Amino acid sequence: MSGRVVPRRGALxxxxxxxxxxxxxxxxxxxxxxxxxxxxxxxxxxxxxxSQAPFDRAFAKQHGAxxxxxxxxxxxxxxxLAATAHVSGVDAVAGPFAVSSVRQGTPEGAPPGFEPPPLxxxxxxxxxxxxxxxxxxxxxxxxxxxxxxxxxxxxHPDMRTGDGLVAGETELRVVGIAESVGESAxxxxxxxxxxxxxxxxxxxxxxxxxxxxxxSADIAAGRDGLAAAVPPGAIAGTxxxxxxxxxAQENTAAFIPFVTAFALLGLAMSVLVIGIVVSGAVGAAxxxxxxxxxxxxxxxxxxxxxxxxxxxxxxxxxAxxxAxxNVLAVPLLAEVAEAYGTATVLIPLWVDVxxxxxxxxxxxxxxxxxxxRAARLRTAEVITMDQAAVGARGRRxxxxxxxxxxxxxxxxxxxxxxxxxxxxxxxxxxxxxxxxAVTFAVGLGSTLIAMKTDGDPDRAGEVTVRTMPRPGPVxxxxxxxxxxxxxxxxxxxxxxxxxxxxxxxxxxxVGVPGLTGGTPLVAYEGDSAGSAATMVRGxxxxxxxxxVAATRFLQATGVRVGETVTxxxxxxxxxxxxxxxxxxxxxxGMAVRxxxxxxxxxxxxxxxxxxxxxxxxxxxxxxYLGELNAxxxxxxxxxxxTEGGKSSVVRAMQALxxxxxxxxxxxxxxxxxxxxxxxxRDRVRDLGILKALGMTPRQTIAQVLTSVAGTGLAAGAIGxxxxxxxxxxxxxxxGRAVGTTIPSADIDVYxxxxxxxxxxxxxxxxxxxxxxxxxxxxxxxxxxxxxxx
Amino acid sequence: MTDPxxxxxxxxxxxDEGRAALAGLTLRVRAGEALAVRGPxxxxxxxxxxxxxxxxxxxxGSVTVDGLRVDELxxxxxxxxxxxxxxxxxxxxxxxxxxxxxxxxxxxxxxxGTPRAQAAAxxxxxxxxxxxxxxxxxxxxxxxxxxxxxxxVARALMNRPxxxxxxxxxxxxxxxxxxxxxxxxxxxxxxxxTIVLVTHDLALAEACATxxxxxxxxxxxxxxxxxxx
Lengths: 789, 229
Description:
The complex is a heterodimer.
Chain A: H1 9-22, H2 24-61, E1 67-71, H3 78-83, E2 90-103, E3 118-123, E4 135-139, E5 147-151, E6 164-167, E7 170-179, E8 187-189, H4 191-198, E9 203-210, H5 216-229, E10 235-240, H6 241-248, H7 250-284, H8 286-294, H9 299-340, H10 349-376, H11 379-384, H12 388-391, H13 395-401, H14 408-419, H15 421-454, E11 463-466, H16 486-495, E12 499-511, E13 518-526, E14 534-538, E15 546-550, H17 551-557, E16 564-569, E17 572-583, E18 592-595, E19 610-615, H18 621-632, E20 638-641, H19 648-682, H20 684-692, H21 697-737, H22 744-747, H23 752-779, H24 782-786
Parallel strand pairs in A: 3-8, 5-7, 13-18, 15-17
Antiparallel strand pairs in A: 1-9, 1-10, 2-3, 2-9, 4-7, 5-8, 6-7, 11-19, 11-20, 12-13, 12-19, 14-17, 15-18, 16-17
Helix pairs in contact in A: 1-9, 2-7, 2-9, 2-10, 2-19, 7-9, 7-10, 7-15, 7-19, 7-21, 9-10, 13-14, 14-21, 15-19, 15-21, 15-23, 19-23, 21-23
Chain B: E1 6-14, E2 20-29, E3 34-38, H1 45-52, E4 60-65, E5 68-69, H2 75-85, E6 86-89, H3 101-112, H4 116-129, H5 145-157, E7 163-167, H6 175-190, E8 194-198, H7 202-208, E9 211-216, E10 219-225
Parallel strand pairs in B: 3-8, 3-9, 6-7, 7-8
Antiparallel strand pairs in B: 1-2, 1-4, 4-5, 9-10
Helix pairs in contact in B: 3-4, 3-5, 5-6
Main location (chain A): membrane
Protein name (chain A): FtsX-like permease family protein
Membrane topology (chain A): Multi-pass membrane protein
């Protein structure tokens, strides 16, 4: 019988375990790299799936309306509307239902200045319908005039079935609470009741499902088809289910683009770093591989051993990463649960399993190449292999660098990358990814800060004067019963010589045909051109009848800059021409802003107004406030320094960005550490020689650090522009995810000094990663190193 | 009598595993001497060399070289000591394969911060005096063993150290090259260079050394001064 004895499975297991235990740095690098990429991937995929699933499930169950259309009751007949069921692309239809926007009466005990928003009331005989099958949660459906069913999201938290409610001038009794996922209306009454509520002729509501409705273009096509089927101007307004869904999940949706970017970065780094680690392990263990093969291990067993050595720590990292991803998702998904009133929303198990399996497959694939190389090494060759071939590379560069007027330890270090160009390239890639992540994170953070400021047009000027002061923190301190006279307050402000300019803004909610519920309206008096609003396109209003609106409002209504929009209040309407789109993250991006005179015809009741005051340059703000408040106190108003915006979502984003960046940078540093450890091990004899010749520990550290600093600088120069490009791609996606357009000024956050600073991130990552091995190299026992041939 | 260049007093060295490499060894070497250290494997030759070179510390006793307590030096001071006071020649040359002959020879001066012109002149002078100036731009891999050892000697002498330590300098050479190196060491010693030479080779010791000690189990078993060389 001939041939070698193939070692049994147990022997292979011991080899794998010994490999994992012996190479602790590599094991730690693989574990952490996989942990990061799996955590970010689980978070990204989980948020995407878990945030959309509740809406999509409930919407499908109710056969929700893809498009809710409000038709002008005076321009179209019920018969014409019924005929729209046959328009091409329409799959199902419900209606026409009479619909009206009515103002609720102020409930008893409401705080001063509280104004309930208008209510969109539809007339329906039953909750069942081919489209928008409303779910009754409590009580029963309205059966007679005087009864009303409220949508769950529109009811006041204290309101119960049996309670009374004033709509317009009519007193109604709440008989049921229902839910419409597509938010077709906020309340339902019997059809005969609708006309009497608004004090004017009601409009018609039609609910449509289309054959194709996945994208906004499909919805737009459906709307165009309907518009062509009815008399011109008959469509008063529309509401797409895509906008409703976007509003419901805007907070989680904003996270998805950047978490996905981090997940992809993490995954790419995993492949790279694990490839480096396993290649390094193979390179450093050629002799060991030769011995194992000479003992009878087959190439397949050697290959499997190296894949297994990567998979064991990767499995641990992947399991921990999946757990971390789920933990990070909890606070974000809690908002989803709250939005749909469902039980706790969790990332589905299949997401964890799929991401985990995918990550391990990627790890196995990354390890497979080097493992195959290990398996193919010829036994005799590897046992006798020395480092001479490696030393021959980069000689010319080393020689030339030696001529530079720099300390020899530095020039020796600078020349090192040229000796092993392959390893240097992978090290540079790890650093470039780290620099990319830092650049991306700094850009994200800067843009979020800029967005927080620019996306809040209500915070303008250095000083804000409230005509209805807020109650103080002292118990029993209550707000005054009525607001101060705006004219008197304006005079007091103008009387201060330090006042540069001021304007007054008052808020209310009005109806917009097609949109369910109230739409925020901000009416300005005074020099509002100086308001802090950031224009996305168009201009600020400057004539009566002109208005500006936030991006999502324009999307939801389908109105473009240059077109008109109708605002309604208790049957009264005004038409405003939209002259500009503003960047406004407040009021769910639905506010319309115009001059007070433009909406005077609505006779709407506004909340107590606030003045925004711009001060002359060099004004002592504290002194100004003291003197102005002395004048305002008798009037019942109060001035304070304008507060910066606060957003828990932005804070959560910033925390998550910082954590993911830190993890990516840590992985990049570990990639560097691993490469430098391998390099130091390869060069231990050279280090011993240099130390024997008198190289001090400090010079040794300088040599090791400069061996990566040059690579770090070059990698930074590559990573920074890639980070800028990634930021430029992700930010508009984030804006789109929440239905807004982020102004380019808020995206262009990288100035030259910042870019220069970021370019050093590569050097910093490389040097931090090399610090530990540099210390080890400096402490290497010279006599032992010299024997390491 | 002048102070010895090397003063090793009652030195013991025990390794972690408890094995004693040196057991209370005392040795004095005067400037200008060429001392050969002989002994079987494990007798403590390399340990003694490492202690004199400041590459290791004794467990007990003191090592003074050129008036400097080597056993009390910090890592950094020890490196500076090696730079300025000793030159080392190894059995396997220990040249950096990716540096040219000149660059190898220049290293000690460059690590010391010697001005470039001064260092270059000294390197050229050494290469010429050792007969290897024609290889100045070559890489060590292209040289014969004897030539490589000459490069190593040139590098060791670069900073004009008072003490030259040679660890089996002919151990990796053929007979002719070994003789060549032996002649070189003799010539250096004749010019006043103090040498400590560790060798198994009795012929080398007799040819090069003015004094020979033999170590057995970490102590000096024989100490013979040559009458003539």
